[in-house]
User: What shape does this take?
Amino acid sequence: MSNEAEETPVHAPLPIKTFITSVARIEQLAHPFTRITFRGGDLAHFRSIGPDQFLYLLLPPTGRKDLTIDAAFEWSQYQAMPESEQPIGAYYTVRHHRPDVTELDIDIVKHGHEGQVGTWLKQAGPGDPVALWGPRMAYAPPPSTQRQLLIGDETALPAIASILDAGPIGARVDAIVELDPDTVLDLPELRGLTINRLDGPEAHQSKLPAALRGWTLNEADYVWGAGEFDLMRELKSYLRDCLGMPAEQVSMVGYWRRNPQP
Assistant: This one.
């Protein structure tokens, strides 16, 4: 998940805070994921708010090991900081939160979109300091939802897995996921769950729009999606403008940009 996290308004029912913590362990999962577990510090005060909650992972500036911010950090301070002092980072979904041991997991996709975070990850290890800013969320199905459609690329898989773990509202859940051929799809089993896997994209042309247009949606359906920013905007436009779905039944979050803005 990159530093976009835009398109659908996101929610933070609690004040957004900065949590200072450190790396506990790094684990290689099924391709293409790496799991980072954070432990201790301010995580004693972290409260989960929803299955697709995400945090901004704030890291030391490139080439440094020390954090240049503390728990009082707010984004209004960022532009005023010297460039050499500005933290690097990106948004990531919380995969697991274990408050009893003050631990939190995030799963990072190693697919070339992580940028500076990927550079940091190659040298990261237990004890390295980090800050986490958040949490926020977008997943909010109406109580009347009868069926959910979850849609996204590889970067959406941790959030989709967390949503499935939470037991989604509605008797039926469908998922459309677009993955590289060598991606291992490891999602929780859920009664009534149907997963439609698309191989791709080809030449950066996603197959998700065509797949969504071939889907029959009903008045009581809820659609949640996450992935590349412009793609999520296209899908949201189709659902809202072409199909006329109400805003509360559509949640689309842009996790990363294929062509980052300068």
User: Anything to note?
Assistant: The mean pLDDT is 90. The CA atoms of residues 15 and 93 lie 18 Å apart. The two ends are 18 Å apart (CA to CA). DSSP finds four helices and twelve strands in the chain.
